[in-house]
């Protein structure tokens, strides 16, 4: 499984209105933490980052310093960028996690392209944002219809972890950081364990 | 038909935010009442119940004192627990009702696993909860796509009952307990019947 | 094409909460007007109408005085009532419009049964109501999955009318009665025509 | 008590989006029925009815054939029209019910004017509509601040009726017509009374 | 402090649509539990209970078997019923908790009457219901304007209890029964205390 | 690819309530700008434009002065109009973009007809409007089921543009005009570039 | 009456999430058109416009080329800027219309300051935006409490116009531009007038 | 000005449902950062922290290691705890910022008590949470009525900062941390400044 993070750029993020700003920031960083924790090969890409779209979110750059990174010169569909596709192929994975901004374009286009080439695609819905819920619903429908599966960062993490015993503290730490109410449960629990 | 109640635990329940607390409690207990009324073989399971996830809801334990109960040591997907799957198979049923917390993981994972093994799966949507409606919608989509059917506790009950004449009072009693407005109808009716 | 009106009963209607009371009343009566205008064979049925479920809405009885009417003695799924099914077959139609209360049971069950027997089913979604939107969404999903098409009373009317020239005043009169804003357009138009 | 119905015109009604069309039509006609039932002096007025604003809703004209009716030549605030104010004064009432379209202008302006002249004003909120809920909330706030009381057609009716025994059938008939679920209660009740 | 429970009748309850049925039932019974726990003098009243409005909710009757109970022959405003007002005065309290169905009439009218006579009135908002949120907002505004304070059953209970040490188990028991998530906290806590 | 703009008429637009008026106007004009920018063959049609449905939105007429334009004499489904279908065929395109008012009829009917004849249909969801969200959801479901893909004007534009380098200023100009927040990004960017 | 437009800057606008982007842009420009049409003295101000807050929206600058314009060097509350206050006083007006971004700071602070100095303040609520509806509600409450009146651009325009006859075309033109459905009414009307 | 942080405890937080978990966590920590930045005397208190209510959120303890901290033995209203009130008085401030969980009790009770003793109270609405929006609205109303002003953490910060020039980086750093979209603006700005 490989993760494609598409166009999480400072300017484009201001367009996202199907999540509250805090929720969306948290979801994107949670997905990144999941990817790092499970050593998922991750590929970053941006479009026109020197213009109004703005630079990639700095936290993502810092979290994946060695990941392939493609500042696309103009292609809207990341899959139209040969270097990007080569990098995807180089991972050797046939299952792709895709998240990005905006959902109906930066996520939907490479999703449809990858499905066409035989990849199994999992859209990480809550780390992908767009203009409003109506647009989101329509784009989800289009991707489902083509065969993509809709997931969220938490279910991605659980599917990768499979068994709490593999590393309780590591995985629990991610949940504590990104699920405030799970952190509360842990804290109440810990307080009693003394 | 068998019923799988997955991870309705005191801690995890605090994460459920796609239903009001009263609605969700009522839905879960209504499903349990339905299962008992129709003698549906029921299997209970929890994950990590000694930690922050907390113990199974006590009402469920009390209602199914003799049901197979699996406190999974670590597997996130209940279907990864061999004892659990053996118990499912032991029911001899090929139709499964699945409800749990959270929908996108504790329900979706065993649903997908069971469908793959040829079971017909009915997700009891209103006795299953998760973080928010966006996550719910995405997980419903994934399960539908794989072939699961989405039901609610009331339609499950009606499908099992088939004919009011089979036991009017018994079934009516469940509705009176879990559908406040149906209780009102019965009371107004009864008041006039004198 | 035949229309099945299932369990629009005074008691059950108080359970409907996915539409405002005014909207729902208007939608049901609009569908009835459409059926009468196009002489669609219509079959009425109720369940347990002497109990809390209450009598059929009186307007429907008055509008279809000669329609086959089945007060089911106990069957929850109208399709389990032999007389009802015989009446459906007697219409000779293979396309069925189904509306009822509540959507997840009184509509979904006969819809699934009719689809299984090879009928083409059109659920009239806005003349069908249930407990809340979550339940509606799940039941819509189940019916779609089985092959039902989701329509609304207005699109049913338009599909039957096909061409305004067939009877402008007749069809326009139905719209004026059931679409307040279309009535406004007609009135503004008429005022100018003088 | 006198009732002022301000600018319920076919064109302007298409701007109302803080109520569903069916709900709003029902509310306006219910208020009119209440006024007639209690013989409340009622004054009708429109603005620019020969232009895009359109004619007054025909049902209102028919229900109040003898009511003072002022087609204002241009004044936006009905209270700026001397004839209208004279008619209000001629009722001899110091309590005014005001409803109209749109709430923030056609209701708010005469409400503020009447309050200033010492009238006690009751805004009938659900027979008054405007562009959206944000605008409604702001205009409610402005009127409250100036001393207006916010009511709805049902509470107006109940305040006028005071005691069911004054005329059960008459008042009940209005409720049956305009509160579908109250009609259901009456029908279920009647069915049992036989 | 005295509690007035106004018109929580089986028929009228079907009109309440600003709360989910489960939430509203829970809120009304929680308020009743609070009143009993603190021995608040409680007065029950209904309007026209032999007609479509239906009988008082049976749970309330059972919980307050000795409370003054007034089946009003016709007065819509309970304060128009002399016996009811006498009973209120007989409590000797000058602070009144009022809850009822529907908010804009059965709660608002006696609230305004009691305020006029110098009582301090606390409306228990979540044990009072009405047709929709718009109507609720307007009626809240009217009562606030007249000086009523808006509370909810939980804050009423906390204000009466003042100090947990007065009776931890008793008060905790009410919370466990009516706040499902507080019950979860208690259960998780108890599980660890072992 | 060809674009069919169906029944965006002044009267019918007043029925659209699943978008705010400003949003919908913007979406329709944005789609038109996209079509012109990419020289998409565009066909306009109206139904009964001399009656209450009203004339086509003037901006559309002005933007496509030379486009085939069919004022249908009575056919509700544009595909029932032979001239219209001939014009579609004359474009030689097998991919159709369809937008219109109302979604469940004026969009859904020609969409189903075109799909049946082997066209690939892309519904432009945000330039299509109807009575409310429930009706929209049902009609989307019906069209998806038949094979239509749901898009929005922005994703249509991006799919056609493919690469920013093809004409940055032209495409950027459309975004600046129809995505206020993208305009803000461009303005902030420009201000710094000085 | 004077109008203060506070901090409608490209960067800050991306924070506004209590209105859709199209709605908000339309509202701000509509208010500006109203101010120009009625020759309301208008004062513009920005905060830190060389930094991330970004430049004032260019349309506003263009519409008020000669208006006093204060790029505040650092004061958050515009009223803390002496030049700004002097300009307000120089208008000689005691009634102020205030709109800005964000409502809870850039509008609320000068509103409270102006009220304290004896001005009568009208907040133009729909040309003022902030982070979310909760924040908006709280800030509205604070301003109301201090005596501000809440209006919207349409009611401001109507209050200034008072009588349609003063300039039908001029005022109608503004409505046609900023109220799409009013434009539709005018177009339908005009089409018939021929 | 002094800040009172009341009952932000791990258990109680699971009851908060009028904010998303991410939003609420962010708001509480933002308020804490504001208080530290401006050296606002801060007082922390909890109720029954050894029981199900759980320990205070650890971040708050860490951020205010030297703040007066009162683990109340039983008093529900923090103002009933003499030590707490003494600490408030010891600050010498007459203006209080109050935030807490749940709004209707832990915030409303000390707010009413403090107002009664002549303090000026500012409720920090978005760092205070409760069961649902209905409860929040009612409790806001009660506090407003008693004279409290409703603010949010951002407006508190801006009111304290008054002028950006006082410390651009410090205050900007808080905004960057707690307003994701302001961080985006800063990042886009910085990228261009190079």
UniProtKB/TrEMBL annotation, chains A, B, C, D, E, F, G, H:
InterPro entries attached to this UniProt entry: Hydrolase_YcaC-like (IPR053152), Isochorismatase-like_dom (IPR000868), Isochorismatase-like_sf (IPR036380), YcaC (IPR048239)
Keywords associated with the record: Hydrolase
A GO molecular-function descriptor: hydrolase activity
Record-linked SUPFAM superfamilies: Isochorismatase-like hydrolases
Protein's gene: ycaC
Protein name per its UniProtKB record: Isochorismate family cysteine hydrolase YcaC
Pfam families: Isochorismatase
Organism encoding this protein: Marinobacter azerbaijanicus
Keyword check for Ribosomal protein: no
Positions of the Isochorismatase-like domain: 2-152
Keyword Ribosomal protein: no
């Amino acid at each position: 499984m490989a993760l494609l993070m598409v166009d999480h750029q400072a300017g484009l993020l201001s367009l996202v209105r199907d999540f509250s700003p805090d929720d969306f920031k948290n979801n994107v960083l949670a997905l990144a933490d999941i990817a790092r924790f499970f050593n998922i090969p991750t590929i970053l890409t941006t479009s026109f980052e020197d213009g109004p779209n703005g630079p990639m979110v700095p936290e993502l750059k810092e979290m994946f310093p060695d990941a392939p990174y493609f500042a696309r010169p103009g292609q809207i569909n990341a899959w139209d960028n040969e270097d990007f596709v080569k990098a995807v192929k180089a991972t050797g994975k046939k299952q792709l996690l895709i998240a990005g901004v905006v959902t109906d374009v930066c996520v939907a286009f490479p999703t449809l392209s990858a499905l066409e080439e035989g990849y199994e695609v999992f859209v990480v819905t809550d780390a992908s944002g767009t203009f409003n819920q109506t647009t989101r619903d329509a784009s989800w429908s289009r991707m489902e219809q083509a065969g993509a599966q809709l997931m969220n960062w938490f279910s991605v993490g659980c599917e990768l972890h499979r068994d709490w015993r593999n590393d309780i503290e590591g995985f629990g730490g991610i949940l504590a950081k990104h699920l405030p109410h799970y952190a509360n449960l842990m804290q109440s629990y810990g307080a009693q364990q003394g």
